[in-house]
Design brief:
This is Class I SAM-dependent methyltransferase. It comes from Chitinophaga barathri. InterPro entries: SAM-dependent_MTases_sf. One of its GO terms (biological process) is methylation. The chain is α/β, with parallel strands linked by helices. It has one domain: Rossmann fold (3-Layer(aba) Sandwich), CATH 3.40.50.150. Helices cover 43% and strands 17% of the residues. It has an eight-stranded mixed sheet, with helices on both faces. Helix 6 links the parallel strand 3 and strand 4. Helix 2 packs across helix 5. The two termini are 23 Å apart.
């Protein structure tokens, strides 16, 4: 990430921080409960420990992988070799997000999760350890193979189903093979048109009450446009902007479209 990009992102975050609300600014009973029972429940649970032990181990790893980057580019430059510890440091979501995904799986009683972008599999593992069957697509074979070792070390390989290839070709195949997902987590490519396309491709396959999670919705102007397009789509009934991720619900039970920007 360039210094200029860092500065721009910091300015956006400051604006978000001072403009976003909390549970007292929420008038939707569903979102109020979600904030109270999921977003604000930040106490460390024993169930989180295996993933954080793995994270600590990976952050020390000097193992080098040859990487195929099919998305908008790496945070670490154009090199095609990367250390595992650098991938985890720069590409993995911080612990609070993996732990949020764990709580969302449990709160929504999600049985099937579809993830675009496995990386080292920390978020994947959090969702699988919460009880969901996770179907995860990764574009880089070597990263997928390393993630597979991580799942085995956690004893989660039976809950996680891996697919390797370009999202543009693999997504449609996977959607036809798996049960309708309760949660879709889109964490890959990070460009405007593909992000919107993945959203549109998933829509017909969702359950009526599904949640979609989008990573880095303020990463670039293109991602911000994608986020606006998704939020305003007629199928989306509720959106929650947490700055680093965005949540959208497609539940027909919500009769009025609502958009929230909340601190997390």
């Amino acid at each position: 990430m360039s210094v200029r990009h860092q500065a721009e992102l910091a300015k956006k975050y400051i604006r978000y921080y001072f403009s976003s609300g909390n549970r007292h600014s929420v008038h939707s009973p569903f979102v109020y409960s979600l904030v109270d029972d999921v977003l604000n429940k930040k106490k460390f649970l024993p169930a989180y420990a295996p993933m954080e032990s793995l994270r600590a181990e990976l952050l020390k790893s000097t193992e080098v992988l040859n990487v195929t980057d099919l998305g908008a580019g790496s945070l670490m430059g154009a090199t095609n070799t990367r250390k595992v510890k650098d991938i985890v440091r720069h590409a993995a979501k911080p612990p609070k997000f993996g732990q949020l995904f764990y709580r969302l799986v449990q709160y929504l009683h999600a049985s099937t999760v579809l993830e675009l972008g496995t990386s080292m599999g920390l978020s994947t593992a959090y969702m699988a350890s919460a009880g969901a069957d996770v179907h995860t697509i990764e574009g880089c074979p070597n990263i997928a193979a390393r993630a597979s070792k991580n799942f085995q070390s956690l004893g989660l390989q039976h809950k996680i189903h891996q697919y390797v290839g370009n999202f543009d070709t693999e997504l449609s195949k996977v959607l036809k093979e798996i049960p309708a997902p309760d949660i879709v987590y889109i964490d890959g490519n990070h460009r405007e048109e593909p992000t919107v396309q993945y959203f549109l491709e998933c829509l017909p396959h969702l359950k009526p009450s599904s949640l979609l999670i989008f990573d880095d919705v303020h990463w670039t102007e293109g991602m911000e446009r994608a986020w606006e397009t998704i939020k305003t789509h007629p199928a989306v009934t509720t959106s929650i902007d947490l700055f680093f991720i965005g949540l959208v619900f497609v539940s027909p039970d919500f009769k009025e479209k609502q958009a929230f920007e909340l601190k997390f």
